[in-house]
Amino acid sequence: MSSAGQRDGQIPRRTGESTAVPAREFRSPLTRMLLRSDGLTTPLLEALAGGPVRVGRGDCGEIRAGRAEASAAPLAAADAAPLLVRRSVMVTGSGHSVSANRVIARLGLAPCLDACLRDPTAPLGPALAATGSGPLRRTLLSTGTSAWTAGRTPGVGCWRTYLMRLGDIPLAVVTEHFDPALVPAHTASHRGRCAMGAS
């Protein structure tokens, strides 16, 4: 399905090329702030959207760590260990998609954590924080751009990938892709196009 045919709230297919772009290269200060933030994403999206956001649709599956994509490497899980793959789309009250998210997470650390990870109907960050299991820390791994396919308006959106730790324990690798109408993805190097570089 093409970007133009995608309906808001639907989980997008992974299409097109993804380009690594340092957070500093994005022209909008709001975009740079969001990409570099080490706090909860949901309140930031709500501030930008001017109202509450919720999970429009989500799904989960499992894979062995040894067969997971390279982005799961920071989890340092044994090859036979199960990993959860969770996908969701965040939407406004009117159903407009504002972000598409992909999470690869370790299972078996604690029952309350597994319950949060397996429930794609609730925003992950606030749900994990509510368990009281310990401090959540986020380390930015990369940022960039790729085609935005989660809503009705086609374009190029920015994304960020970070490692979420529970204390010192790697818990999840999270990739968040943002609606370019809400989070501008233009860079300093060229309008609508991006240059490679370290984040």
What can you tell me about this protein's structure?
16% of the residues lie in helices and 36% in strands. It is of the alpha+beta class and 199 residues long. Strands 1-5-6-7-4-3-2 form a seven-stranded antiparallel sheet. 34% of the residues are buried.
Mean pLDDT: 86
Structural class of the secondary structure composition? alpha+beta
General shape:
globular
Number of helices: 4
> How large is the share of residues in beta strands?
35-45%
Order of helices and strands: EHHEEEHHEEE
Distance between the termini: 31 Å
Point out poorly predicted stretches: 1-5, 191-199
Care to give the gist of this entry?
16% of the residues lie in helices and 36% in strands. It has helices at residues 29-36, 41-49, 111-117, 124-130; strands spanning 18-20, 53-64, 82-92, 97-106, 136-148, 155-166, 169-178.
What is the fold's blueprint, element by element?
Layout: E1 18-20, H1 29-36, H2 41-49, E2 53-64, E3 82-92, E4 97-106, H3 111-117, H4 124-130, E5 136-148, E6 155-166, E7 169-178
Antiparallel strand pairs: 1-5, 2-3, 3-4, 4-7, 5-6, 6-7
